[in-house]
Each structure stands twice: as structure tokens, then as C-alpha cells.
Amino acid sequence: MPAPLKPRSNAMQKGGRIDFASLLGLLAGPGFILLGQHMEGGSIGALLQKSAALIVLGATVASCAVSFSQSYLWAAMRDLRKVISEDTPDPYDLIERVVRYATVLRKEGPIALQKYAREERYAMLSTGLNLIISNTPEESMATIMERAFHERVRLNNAGAEVFEAAGGYLPTFGILGAVLGLIHTMGNLADPSKVGEGIATAFVATVYGVGFANLIAYPVARKIRTRAISERQLDRLVVTGIEGLRAGMIGTPLRQLMAEGLHFSSGGQTTAAAEGSETGRARAA
């Protein structure tokens, strides 16, 4: 009997590889802004305004809650991990796992796949194995796999849509916070010594709105969507592999079939990235 398959690395087993570029970017962006404020002779404490943060962040969260369903909001919270970690399997490892499962199926039958289906960490592949184990008819299996594929695409992009919307709301509420601050300042015109400080404080809300949008919301959305593109390619690879496995393919023919799909996906990634870029430019316009 073939030995159980194991992930290639401990990082995969523990939940993903740390994306140090994302960590560096999330820390360096605000850090450079605070450093610039200090170099200009300004007080870093002047940028720490609880009321401004409450107006901008609180109103943005409320608007997103109105704009999206609960499943989308949970997806956004869940997908935050995709910003700092990469837990998708290597595509060639995935191909080898499918080829190994095909060998087990040919030699030992579908029941022998139960153990592998329980241990399989990639959800789409586990779904396909369970369908084979349950001897699902070919037409029904194709329908179920295709539906699972599209549902995963939708959910994998849900978090990006929420953060993109937040990126649009944040600057608007930053301006609203500034206007509210100016209204409060105008009420103190009788004391000229407070006017300058009041105006400076009012514009902190604008800094929060523009800063959070461009340092966090939009970059996070872009990273989530990039991860979603990778997962979509792997899911399509799995669908192809399960079809080949169901048809009785093993070894080199199955490996070549999936590898051809992988090369096709590589071209698709460029197309999808370009579509995302066009969508972003259209939204910005």
C-alpha cells in the first residue's frame, strides 16, 4: 500500500508561509508618514485623535455592514490572514497528489481513498475525492464540482470587494470628520488662540481617511484578490485532475493533462490581473 501523502513543508502543515513583504509594507507605510511628520517638526501625538478615528473608522464599518451581507463581512475578516500568509499548495505538489490518488484508485478501489480524503488539506481536492468514493454519477459529479468551483471563486473574492468598498468610503468620511471639526472650531471664534489648533485637529480626520484607504484598504483588497486568482487556478487544476481520475487516467497521461491546464492558467493569471487593473482604474475614474 502506498505511504500516506505528506505536505512538502512544515510551513504548509502549520497554516501557511509568512508573507514578509506584506508585513513590511503594512508597518513601513504608517512608519514613513510618522517619520515625515517628525522631520517636519510636527508632533506625532497631534495625529492621534480618538474622535477622528471614531468618525472615520466607525462610519466606514457601518457603511460596509449596510453594503454587504454577513457572509461577505465574515469573508473579509477571514481573508485578512491571506495578506500576511500564503497557504495555497504548490501546483506541482497538487498534481503529484492527484496522480498518487489515481494510482491508489486503480490498484485498491475507491474505498481506499477514504483515508486520503480525510487527510487532504485542500478543500476542492477533498470534495472531488469524496465524490469518487461515493460513486457519484459522472454528470452529477461534473455539475457538483463546477458549482463548488464557482462558489469558491465568489467567496474568495468577497473579502476583496469589502475592502475595496471600504477604500472608497474612508476618504469621504475623512472629509466629513474634517467638516465636523471645522464646525466645532467656528464655534470658538471668540477665542482666536484656539482657532489654529482646532483647524489642525479637524484635518486629522482627512489624514485618517486618505491614509487608511491607501495604506490598508486598497492594498489589502489587492492582495486578497491576487490570492483568489491563485486559488482559482488551483481549483480549476483540481477539477481537471478529478475528471481525468474519474476517466481512469493514471501516471504520465494524467500528469501531462494537469500540467497543460497549469500552463493555460499561467496565461489566465495575466489576463485576470489585467482585468482587475482595468476594474480598479474604472472605479477610480
Residue-averaged pLDDT, rounded? 81
Number of helices, where a helix is a run of at least 4 consecutive DSSP H or I residues: 12
What's the number of structural domains?
Answer: 1
Helix content: over 70%
Short note summarizing the structure:
The protein is an all-alpha fold.
Care to describe what's here?
- This protein has 12 helices and 2 strands, in the order H-E-H-H-H-H-E-H-H-H-H-H-H-H.
- It has 285 residues and is an all-alpha fold.
- Strands 1-2 form a two-stranded antiparallel ribbon.
- Helix 6 (91-108) packs parallel to helix 11, helix 9 (138-186) runs antiparallel to helix 11 (204-246) and helix 11 (204-246) packs antiparallel against helix 12.
- The longest helix is centred in the middle third of the chain and has 49 residues, at 138-186.
- It is elongated, with a radius of gyration of 25 Å.
- The N and C termini lie far apart (60 Å).
Question: How are the SSEs ordered, and which strands pair?
Answer:
Layout: H1 10-14, E1 17-18, H2 20-39, H3 50-67, H4 70-78, H5 81-84, E2 85-86, H6 91-108, H7 113-119, H8 123-133, H9 138-186, H10 195-202, H11 204-246, H12 251-284
Antiparallel strand pairs: 1-2
Question: How would you describe this structure in keywords?
Answer:
two-stranded antiparallel sheet, 2 strands, 285 residues, 79% helix, 12 helices, mainly alpha, 1% strand
